[in-house]
Amino acid sequence: MQRLLSSQKVLPYLLILPASLFLAAFFFVPFVQVVLEAFTSDEGFTLAHFRTMADDWKFMPALSNTLGLALVVVPIQITLALVMASLVTRLRRGRDVVLYVFTIPLGISDLAAGLIWFALLEQNGFLNSILYGLGVIPGPQNLLDYRNTAGLFVAVVVAEVWRATAIVLVILVAGLGLIPKEYDEAAEVFGAGPLKRFFLITLPLLRPSLQTALILRTILAFEVFAVVAVLAGNNLPVLMGETYSWQFDLQDHKVASAYAIVILAISLAFTVFFLWALHDRTREAAA
Amino acid sequence: MTSLATTEAEAPTRAEPRSSGRLVMASAVIVLVAWVLVPIYLLVVNALGSVAAVTAWPKSLVPEFDLASLAFFANYAGVPRALLNSFLVAGLTMVLSIGLGAPAGYALARFRFPGANLFRLAVLMTRAFPLPLLALPLTVLFIRVGLDDTIIGLALVHTTLAMPFAVLIMASLFMSIPEELEEAAWTLGCSRLSAFRKVVLPLALPGIAAAGIFAFVISWNEVFAAAVLTIENKTLTAFLLQSLDVSPLPLKFAGGAVLIVPALLFLFAVRKYLFSLWGIANR
């Protein structure tokens, strides 16, 4: 037994066995089950659950709000994270402290982030109080009015940008660390200004990290849920929120699974798209 | 964009634009630091205010250091239980993720074997999926095996979220520890297991702890699966989410503050590892 365990051939498989079994049981099996739930009824294959989902008046708003949020939030996050990363790498003093502060939202859940921004934006909240103190508004304004969908959308965008830019920043800072300083120095010697160096040297070399950040953030953006629940309740439907209410409030697992398939499908589609669109063709030649 | 031309033109006389550039940079840093910190500060002001101050108009920007809101939160029906549940689920997730992830990471770091890439790919693949959704079919399965509405059931789902990170972090961690150290221990009479325990483990321990904390925070912060899978045994996130419509303001804000405190403490504890952790986890 001892000899078998220490044999180079068997040991690695024994070591990955628990993790593999776990992934099979709690990732692959539920994944297959969610597909089965969504596409079958007692009589066999059916698209009825998808029809129920699509016929619900909240489906189209949920789909467009989710896609719209991702479309607005992700580019802002990438841009802001690029600005933050470039600032941090140029800092001479206090670099670690600033970087730590910038990454704090990484540890904050989407629910807590929603509550943080709710404290600012609610009717008697801090933003209204400050604006009132400055004499801009005469009294409390309802910034999160349920009839004002655009206002709710903006509130969610702000909270999401606040919360989840940190993860993009961390990926980009790690990526910046991999770029040899010599390229930048050489460009400086040849007289390229900071902006030119950024767009012609840093940005292209940062492509692998940008790709990772884009894919990860876009997938996570499709999962937006708790921030919306806190700031907008049911007045700004999103896919994950609808999945939750079909599963938990309406107790219809089949339609909830259909929603899950929609979220999975758009996540997968965007992942494939980014892998294709940002594919580094020069790397293949080198390899 | 127009500044590009001017910086290039002024390149020979560098000193002037540089110091004004420094000023712009410093103010940008200050604005961004405030952007991150001020909202957190304001939530803390709310959490440390009396119930009257939380609902007052206009609001004071200075905390009262009144513990009434927090006491109200702590005594609210279901809160102590939810807090305990959150700790238990996150703790269990941490143990499971490390327990499953560390051996797999060691295998990836030390052995070249057929199937290693397939395993790595399977682990990476989990990241392309919105994992909390897998809680949906698991509710049915858990009812069948008696794990519905339990700490263990939820911890299993949270482990699917955290374990892939743990595997990748561990693999890179063990790779950073020279294999020669282990080989030296073998020639001195250690078995593979005792060499691991006496040589590798002490060196890897801080990194393992950081990966564990990482797993803890992932579970502590998770909302969707927690809210779907627990009814009686709610975690704090599930409790706060489901009471959004009925809970008074002081409860919401105190709850939010309590939710971010452990996460911030842990983040501070692993700040040294933060970038290597995320750098690895997102390669």
Automatic annotation (TrEMBL), chain A:
Instruction: Name its GO BP terms in alphabetical order.
Output: transmembrane transport
What keywords tag this UniProt record?
Membrane, Sugar transport, Transmembrane, Transmembrane helix, Transport
Q: Where in the cell is it found?
A: Cell membrane
One Gene Ontology cellular component? plasma membrane
What are the residue boundaries of the ABC transmembrane type-1 domain, all occurrences included?
A: 63-274
InterPro entries associated with the record: MetI-like (IPR000515), MetI-like_sf (IPR035906), Sugar_ABC_transporter (IPR052730)
Residue stretches spanning the membrane: 12-36, 67-85, 97-120, 152-179, 214-236, 256-278
Main localization is membrane
Q: How does it sit in the membrane?
A: Multi-pass membrane protein
Kindly give the Pfam families that the UniProt entry links to this protein: BPD_transp_1
* Annotated family: Belongs to the binding-protein-dependent transport system permease family.
Which PANTHER family does this chain map to?
GLUCOSE IMPORT SYSTEM PERMEASE PROTEIN GLCT, TREHALOSE TRANSPORT SYSTEM PERMEASE PROTEIN SUGA
Name-wise, this protein is Multiple sugar transport system permease protein
Q: Tell me which species this is from.
A: Chelatococcus caeni
From TrEMBL, chain B:
Q: What subcellular locations does the record give? A: Cell membrane
Its keywords, alphabetically, are: Cell membrane, Membrane, Sugar transport, Transmembrane, Transmembrane helix, Transport
Q: Which PROSITE patterns match?
A: ABC_TM1
- Membrane topology label: Multi-pass membrane protein
What is a biological process (GO) this protein takes part in?
Answer: transmembrane transport
- What is any one of the record's Gene Ontology cellular component terms? plasma membrane
Q: Name one Pfam family in it.
A: BPD_transp_1
Positions of the ABC transmembrane type-1 domain = 83-270
| Origin: domain of life | Bacteria
InterPro entries in the record:
BP-dep_ABC_trans_perm, MetI-like, MetI-like_sf
Q: Where are the transmembrane segments?
A: 23-44, 87-109, 121-145, 151-178, 199-220, 249-270
Principal localisation: membrane
Family of this protein = Belongs to the binding-protein-dependent transport system permease family.
Per its record, how is this protein called by name? Multiple sugar transport system permease protein
Q: Which organism is it from?
A: Chelatococcus caeni
